[in-house]
Backbone:
């Protein structure tokens, strides 16, 4: 049984930073692409960032480029999302996901999802 557990969310003022973690258990995910999504109230869950198995391939949605950094530590079976210069529009529940395929975007296609962690950015 594979579990993904997000942590590190919280309340921060605009311009501040948070570091999210996604810890996997049950099997190694070193050969999986790791993803971060977010979902604001009343909105569709949207792609934020992805990192390939080796860490060499990285993609971000345009709205977070230059502010967010995705990384992973395969020895710890953990992925991270460093969020800097946070804006109120970044407020959402942030979810990590894992899938063997690159550029997976349809939510139903992902092998694994975490439970989410709340990020709230005040102005």
Residues:
């Amino acid at each position: 049984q594979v579990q993904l557990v997000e942590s590190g969310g919280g309340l921060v003022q605009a311009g501040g930073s948070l570091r999210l973690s996604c810890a996997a258990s049950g099997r190694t995910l070193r050969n999986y692409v790791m993803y971060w999504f977010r979902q604001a109230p009343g909105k569709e869950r949207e792609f934020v960032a992805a990192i390939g198995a080796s860490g060499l391939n990285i993609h971000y949605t345009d709205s977070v480029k230059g502010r967010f950094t995705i990384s992973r530590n395969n020895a710890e079976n953990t992925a991270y999302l460093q969020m800097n210069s946070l804006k109120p529009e970044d407020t959402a529940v942030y979810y990590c996901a894992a899938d063997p395929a690159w550029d997976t975007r349809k939510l139903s296609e992902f092998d694994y999802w975490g439970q989410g962690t709340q990020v709230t950015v005040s102005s």
